[in-house]
Specification:
Elements: E1 11-14, E2 18-24, E3 34-37, E4 41-48, E5 67-74, E6 85-89, E7 92-98
Antiparallel strand pairs: 1-2, 2-7, 3-4, 4-5, 6-7
Amino acid sequence: MENQNGILTLDVFQTKKEIIIRSTIAGVPGKDLDISITSDKVTIKGERKDEQSEESKEYYYRELYWGGFERSVILPEEVNADEAKATLKNGILTIRLPKLSKEKKVSIA
């Protein structure tokens, strides 16, 4: 059976020192989000629960997504996953990922 997760829309942009990911996550408390970060990838998982339980629903429009969602992003540069910070304010998730300093990369000839 195919995984039927919803699509999570994001903005991914950078400053000189960090990569920033922003997404609208309305209706999902921070404790119900699972964010995993490696040096080159970020995965965001969660579930939006419909807490209204009317017995008979006759929708005129049904555009809101209820259920699980997941999104992975391959990052354009390596980041320091240990220093990453995530905040959730007014339904907007912001993840700040400090870029690895070029000086810290080691090359062996």
